[in-house]
Amino acid sequence: MSNIRITKQFSFETGHALYGYDGKCRNVHGHSYKLSVTVIGTPISDTQNVKFGMVIDFGDLKKIVKGEIVDVFDHATVFNKNTPHVELAKELSDRGHNVLLVDYQPTSEMMVIDFAEKIQKHLPQNIKLFSLKLQETDSSFAEWYASDNTN
């Protein structure tokens, strides 16, 4: 049976600031992110299986990505927890804002690494994460490929 890649696209709004950066992005700002998640596997060949012919049900993939990424990051502000932005984060949080403190600089590059780790933990054994594309503007994006990250 052939390996097939399937992709599901998601979108979410997230704010962030890049502490120590030498440009405008050191200021708190936001993006309308678009995330493309591509997995690879063989279609289910068991004719008795309700998912016959599918690599993975798009709905099952959606549950994983929404639960781990979209529902967490949508309309949140993300800061590196090891920067002075924690003071701002506490102030925002105390005022009822959704704030995420992460172990990394919240660039698209680092976010896509984080997302790959989170998604991989929840995929069925026979399905592999092939790639992620995180687009922060119409012309700027970061990509993660499993083939680039094998040991």
Main sheet? 6 strands, mixed
Strand content: 25-35%
End-to-end distance, in Å?
A: 26 Å
Q: Helical stretch count?
A: 3
Question: Any idea of the CATH topology?
Answer: Tetrahydropterin Synthase, Chain A
User: Can you list the strand order of the major beta sheet?
Assistant: 4-3-1-2-5-6
Name a few traits of the molecule:
six-stranded mixed sheet; 151 residues; 34% strand; single chain; elongated; alpha/beta; Tetrahydropterin Synthase, Chain A
Walk me through this protein's architecture.
It is built from three helices and six strands, in the order ββαβαβαββ. It has one domain (4-148): 6-pyruvoyl tetrahydropterin synthase/QueD (Tetrahydropterin Synthase, Chain A), CATH 3.30.479.10. It has helices spanning 58-73, 85-94, 108-120, and strands at residues 4-16, 29-41, 76-80, 99-102, 128-137, 140-145. The protein is elongated and about 55 Å long. Helices cover 26% and strands 34% of the residues. The chain has a six-stranded mixed beta sheet, sandwiched between helices. The chain has 151 residues and is of the alpha/beta class. The relative contact order is 0.19.
SSE order and pairing:
Blueprint: E1 4-16, E2 29-41, H1 58-73, E3 76-80, H2 85-94, E4 99-102, H3 108-120, E5 128-137, E6 140-145
Parallel strand pairs: 1-3, 3-4
Antiparallel strand pairs: 1-2, 2-5, 5-6
Brief account:
The protein has 151 residues and is of the alpha/beta class.
